Every structure is written in C-alpha cells, then in structure tokens.
C-alpha cells in the first residue's frame, strides 16, 4: 500500500531534519505529496490558560517568527513550496490531526525521543499525536542532542 500525502510535524529544531529526510524518502518511493506542519503554541497555554493581559502583540510576533523559521527550515528542501508549509496555532495534537484531515493526509511523521521513566509519564508529542490520529503515524526515533 502506497501513501499519497505525508505530513511531517516539526518543532523546527535541527534535530527534526532526519524526520523530513525519512518522509521524503517515503514520499519518493510512494510518489506521494509531502507537507510540513509547525504548530505555534499559544502563550496563554504556558501560563496555564489564564493571563490577565493582552497577548495579541506577542502572538503576532510568534507568528512572524514562526513564518521566518519554517521558511528557513524548508530552505533545505527545494521541492517544498510555501503551500506545503503549514503553520497552525493551538494545541499540537489537535492542530496536527485537523491539518491531516483537511489535507487528506494518510501518514503523519513525528519525532520520538524514546523517553522513559518520569519523562515518559509526562508524555510526549509523539504519544499525543498517536492517540486518536485520523491516519497512520510514523514515529521516527530522534538522536539525543550531544
Ligand atoms: P516532543 O515530544 O515535544 O519533544 O516532540 C517530539 C516531536 O513532536 C517533534 O520531533 C516533532 O515531530 C513533533 N512536535 C513537537 N512540537 C511540535 C510543534 N509545535 N509543531 C509540530 N510538531 C511538533
């Protein structure tokens, strides 16, 4: 069975490049389309959802920075047009699932740090994305930062 549209979720760190390389290889082998998604997490989430100030300026800055970061991250992949680079705003799991559904993706690729112990109990984005995913999910093991 071939995949048709592969969505790579990235936090835009350099350690995510192996994910894109893996997804690209799969896309080439299956003649599939490829897309990137980065989810900007609302400032309010970091503060527990209840912030007594206007965060709209900060949110705009988050978006502007993310737009630049995704463009420079995708620079390495000449085949990835701006239409294949999605920015979303919200909770990563929810937004990645939404984009996968909206774009008819049949595979989501995420990075996994292979956490264990307490870090595993705290959860990871890869675990989160797997639960309730609208399509297959490939967790690519990421190397630990030196
Ligand atoms: P984490 O468990 O948060 O360290 O992230 C593991 C993987 O989840 C990353 O390698 C990405 O594939 C994905 N991921 C994490 N944060 C985001 C984000 N904000 N937007 C899209 N994907 C993300």
Features:
single chain, 146 residues, alpha/beta, Rossmann fold, 5 strands, binds adenosine monophosphate, Universal stress protein
Describe this entry's structure for a reader.
Residues 3-141 form the UspA domain. This is Universal stress protein. InterPro entries: Rossmann-like_a/b/a_fold (IPR014729), Universal_stress_UspA (IPR006015), UspA (IPR006016). By secondary structure, the chain is of the alpha/beta class. The chain is built from six helices and five strands; from the N terminus they run E-H-E-H-H-E-H-E-H-H-E. It has one domain: 3-Layer(aba) Sandwich (Rossmann fold). The chain has a five-stranded parallel beta sheet, sandwiched between helices. Strand 1, helix 1 (17-30) and strand 2 (33-40) form a beta-alpha-beta unit. It starts with a strand and ends in a 5-residue tail after the last strand. It binds adenosine monophosphate (AMP). Adenosine monophosphate binds next to strand 2, strand 4 and helix 6.
Biggest beta sheet summary: 5 strands, parallel
Distance between the termini: 37 Å
Instruction: Provide the spatial order of strands within the biggest beta sheet.
Output: 3-2-1-4-5
- Name the overall outline: globular
Looking at the overall shape, the CATH architecture is 3-Layer(aba) Sandwich
- CATH fold naming: Rossmann fold
- Estimate percent helicity: 40-55%
Question: What Rg is obtained from the alpha carbons, in whole angstroms?
Answer: 16 Å
Kindly report the name of the CATH homologous superfamily. Answer: HUPs
Name of the top-level CATH class: Alpha Beta
- Give the SSE string: EHEHHEHEHHE
**Total count of domains:** 1
Whole-number average pLDDT?
Answer: 88
> Would you identify the regions where 5 or more consecutive residues have pLDDT less than 50?
none
Strand content: 15-25%
Count of helical stretches: 6
Protein name: Universal stress protein
Domain UspA: 3-141
Subunit structure: Homodimer.
Organism: Pseudomonas saudiphocaensis
């Amino acid at each position: 069975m071939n995949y048709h549209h592969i969505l790579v979720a990235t936090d835009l760190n350099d350690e995510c490049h192996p994910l894109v390389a893996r997804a690209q290889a799969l896309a080439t082998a299956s003649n599939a389309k490829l897309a990137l998604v980065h989810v900007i997490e609302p400032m309010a989430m970091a503060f527990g959802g209840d912030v007594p100030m206007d965060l709209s300026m900060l949110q705009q800055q988050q978006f502007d920075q993310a737009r630049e970061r995704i463009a420079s991250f995708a620079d390495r992949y000449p085949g990835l047009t701006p239409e294949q680079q999605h920015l979303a705003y919200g909770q990563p799991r929810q937004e990645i699932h939404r984009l996968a559904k909206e774009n008819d993706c049949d595979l989501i690729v995420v990075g996994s740090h292979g956490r264990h112990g307490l870090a595993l109990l705290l959860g990871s984005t890869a675990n989160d994305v797997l639960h309730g995913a609208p399509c297959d999910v490939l967790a690519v093991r990421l190397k630990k930062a030196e």
